[in-house]
Specification:
4 copies of one chain form a homotetramer.
Chain A lengths: L1 E4 L5 H13 L3 E6 L4 E6 L17 E5 L20 E3 L2 E3 L6 E5 L6 H13 L4 E3 L17 H13 L3 E5 L6 H7 L2 E4 L7 H9 L4 E4 L6 H13 L5 E5 L16 H9 L4 E3 L1 H5 L2 H13 L4 E5 L17 H17 L6
Parallel strand pairs in A: 7-8, 7-14, 8-9, 9-10, 10-11, 11-12, 12-13, 13-14
Antiparallel strand pairs in A: 1-3, 1-4, 2-3, 5-6
Helix pairs in contact in A: 2-3, 5-6, 9-10
Chain lengths: ~350, ~350, ~350, ~350
């Protein structure tokens, strides 16, 4: 770590900080600059007490970490190779087929899901999405069909040979949801719910980890690190928009996160344009950008009649738009060198 | 609801929207302005399907809700009266004694907590805080002493006759934590973890609900609404800083939220200045503002030796500063008309 | 406008609001819902006093505008047609050749700019960028070569037959800068400096208006509206990243803004990936996304030796990377149907 | 500066960075840690080329500055003493009388301003605020009475023996505005309009510098540094709310900024609660917090009839509320030890 001291400190005060750095197990190397002293503290930051606490001392201006805080998820961990996930007969990750995960925000009925599954299958989707458990801002909003929703998901997925991705909200539901789903989705609101994340990790099922509403890239990777540290390497990250001051869109889709994640990590990254902007009329364009950035796939909300959807209808695309979207995406997917089939 | 249509729409298109509004159970009242038509949709928004889904239609510009989404937590629900919580012999709420909840970020050892409990008791605290379960950004950071932490909390609280407030992270720990604590703390990262919130609500214990890092006032009140809707009226809100672009402080303490919550709700509001700014050197000043804004109390991190704290040392105050803070706060607490003893 | 009243108001109080709405020139149409009254106020919002001021009244919950605040920049103003700008023999806008504006952050010397102009010309750029006047966060940082910088820009542009785009910071420099430049750039920090914007508008020169650091789409369009309202239709918008909580990148490039602007306006939109992320290593990927989103061009920082650049070296690409970038972009530019030459 | 290199670099690569650090004029001191090398670069950062540009190199992970970027505005510059400004017979700054600057958002008419001046004078104000030049988001909104506004300001100020604070928007108006005003206000939108700031500095008049909508504390202090560096020491800072995701309030008033500024700088700090929250109903409470935080004064919008104000009526308080506010503030002002008269 690097401990930057205040300017013009009394040497005795500098010594106190040096002594504390040593006490906390680091080898202190003071460097006396023209204006102020900096203490380089040699020692493995991942096993020692952090020196960031020294910022509470009046002698200290700043403390900077040197090492990255994540390990297993870092590119270095796999020596620059990318993780390819094998799920339901599909490969997800760098260079693989661009993956479409599509379906309604919520599972509402057998009829609704069957027709949607048919439509998205026709549009090249390999995974069916649909919420059986819904995290809703208000307790008075539809909370999902729960077990009945899982039953319907299984039925539709079987009928159309699709994998299932669905959100799990409670530690107690992990086992049940894992029994039906191919991919467990951890939603944005639970992106730092480590009890749930750990429980999901232990299920052994692949996990799609959404970015929290105001989660920094580093924090997101560290949440994924929890999953790998609990023995489950099958993780995808999903950018779904961050919260900013802009109100034209529901969230601001941080498409640059695709490049950032590819830089820092070997994990696949998926884009959710529906949550990302919250407006069906912008979804198609955002999908093109996602493909061009070489994201590994899309998680996209499709509904037979968005105006009557039981949740988030304003951001769901109908079957026609979904079909057009898949078609219009092809040249961009080709341009990044991924196979179309 | 109010459905604002796009300008210069064909009358047939306007009719389609009107028909859908009616189909969804509202009485549509179109108002034809100079430039565009607005449809006022009469019906109880809390029991009908939302019309916000209509924003997915090309004819529609915007949809505005009219009613507030929260009920039980609203000022109207108690006809303008404030909730006073009775916990561990104390009253928390409007006009009551300003409540000090103080103690370390994490419970580290019996000795650490005993000395801290003694110090905060001497400084007028009535509740002892201390994390036994810690939500940490990295899996490699100290995760709390768990059960042993709860045991130590009970010991120290008993010795110094303090109530206990401590965070619960997992639905499965609610029962155990509730057996030790007087107040269950739901942390910022779990502020929309509705499974945990609901479980905590059912325990019947008073709950302190922290504001999420990027939670709007409305969303925060709706998360509290979950607790009341599950039959537990004993809720305090806790502002602990929101995430903004500013990096001088760890978070931006939204002190105006005190006034906003007093406006909208009957629930008590507590300020956490430690998380709020993340710097011990700003805590005292923020406490004065909290008192002046007529917050109902403080949740404040106090540690015998912050530099060696196992978590968040940079924002914990030592015993001397805590004692000074309590003393310096008195004129501000008096100024809002609260009793000092 | 729509004036939403508080629930359960006394009818006499409702009447007061209705009277004020009428006094301010609107025709009030009260709609009495189950819980509260809403007043639809009929009248042209663009010529009447706003009713938003009524939010200061205790009877009023919210006031919503109905009409859009911008006119000349809106898609409707050109009946759905896009503006095509003709500058220095080039056409910029929908369906035209993808426009490369490239060059150093700052003009540093004749040699620096000549070599850069040669390199970007070889890489298909049609405009040379380079700051002669630099808005720097600190007064101790390099503020630009001023007139000498303009002279060098003219020299290099002439030598390589490039148009010039350069920033103007002062109303007093508009005339001088306009005498050298083909496009006046209004920077993010001046995006609501209406004195400068108006002066630039009056010069008659095409203007590239960057989005302010925390500017909403609506505010950005309204700043552009100032230019058109002052008789200058030659405006391009430039998204260059907004300020968010994320620190991995310098700014968060809001690529969705391309789609939003195309939706709302007829003006061309340019992407500045350099400011957008502040990291040379992410620039290439962001450019691909910009092309896929059908942005009309790029404003990109290129320097012969970024490490020794006099400003913002960390985000400037070198000649090799620029050349590669132009090459790798081609399939994406083709995919949106734009001509490559 | 501190240059943190990537882990496990080849020694030859490390040498290249060391050589560049030396070439740029610093004395490089490499420190070889367990995982990666850090180069401490000794040299005065305020006179040397920044090394932050090295972040564009593939060998480099991060670059950290060591020295603070501001000097003249820093507490150290005045050896811990606070600046006290003497304006219109008043002293503004630490320990002085709490300063009320009050008046309408815009000057609308002689009658409006005269009645307001009388009311605020009666309520202890020593400065009259009122905009003659208004920066409006839309070109179709009221832009201020300009010269006529200045004339009315002078008239009212003379009549009631008040100082004048008013905003200047254009470099060209600085001389004229300075001829009427006692304090030149630089607004949030112009907080990094360095041409205007420099021109205002040169006028020699005291300047109130508002914080930009998304300006970090450091950037704000650096903008003030421009003024001092141009020979004008009479600067006040004004916190007026920053832009965040919250929509309940127009802005989020960062009250903690008072403590941060007092920590970092000797300059007085003023709070603008009106812009800070954008709602008249929260203003009083925010003022109490400002006083408790030991801000040096308030800039507050007061209007005889807010509902009919020509700008920002929703955030202006009427005469009754202003009078009540001044009265209710007294105990808080006393509590920080300032004289009431």
């Amino acid at each position: 770590m690097i401990v930057v001291l205040k300017p013009n400190l009394d040497p005795a005060e500098v010594e106190k900080v040096i002594a504390e750095v040593a006490k906390l197990g680091y080898e202190p190397r003071p460097i006396h600059g023209k204006v102020q002293t900096v203490i380089a503290a040699i020692g493995d930051e991942s096993t020692h007490h952090t020196l960031e606490t020294l910022a509470s001392w009046p002698q200290v201006e700043h403390v900077h970490r040197v090492q990255k805080r994540y390990k297993l998820v870092s590119r270095e961990a796999k020596k620059g190779h990318d993780s390819i996930l094998h799920i339901h007969g599909q490969k997800i990750g760098a260079g693989q087929k661009f993956c479409f995960m599509a379906g309604p925000c919520s599972v509402e009925s057998e009829e609704q899901l069957m027709t949607t599954a048919q439509a998205v299958k026709a549009g090249g989707a390999t995974f069916l999405r649909g919420g059986a458990y819904k995290p809703r801002t208000s307790p008075y909003e539809f909370q999902g069909l729960a077990k009945e929703g899982l039953r319907i998901l299984s039925l539709a997925a079987k009928e159309y040979d699709l994998g299932i991705i669905t959100e799990v909200l409670s530690e107690r539901d992990v086992e049940l949801v894992a029994a039906h789903a191919d991919i467990l989705q951890i939603g944005a609101r639970n992106a730092q719910n480590f009890a749930l994340i750990t429980e999901a990790a232990r299920s052994g099922k692949p996990i799609l980890l959404k970015r929290g509403l105001s989660m920094k890239i580093e924090e997101w990777l560290l949440a994924a690190e929890y999953i790998l540290a609990h023995g489950n390497p099958n993780v995808m990250l999903c950018e779904r928009g961050i919260r900013t001051f802009e109100t034209y869109t529901r969230n601001t889709l941080d498409l640059g996160a695709v490049a950032a994640i590819k830089h820092e990590s070997h994990l696949p990254i998926i884009i959710d344009p529906s949550q990302g902007c919250g407006r069906a009329d912008l979804v198609l364009e955002l999908c093109k950008a996602a493909a061009a950035l070489n994201a590994d796939g899309l998680l996209i909300e499709v509904h037979p009649n968005p105006a009557e959807a039981w949740s988030d209808g304003q951001q769901q695309v109908d079957f026609d738009l979904y079909a057009r979207l898949v078609e219009e995406l092809k040249p961009f997917v080709s341009a990044v060198g991924r196979p179309l089939e």
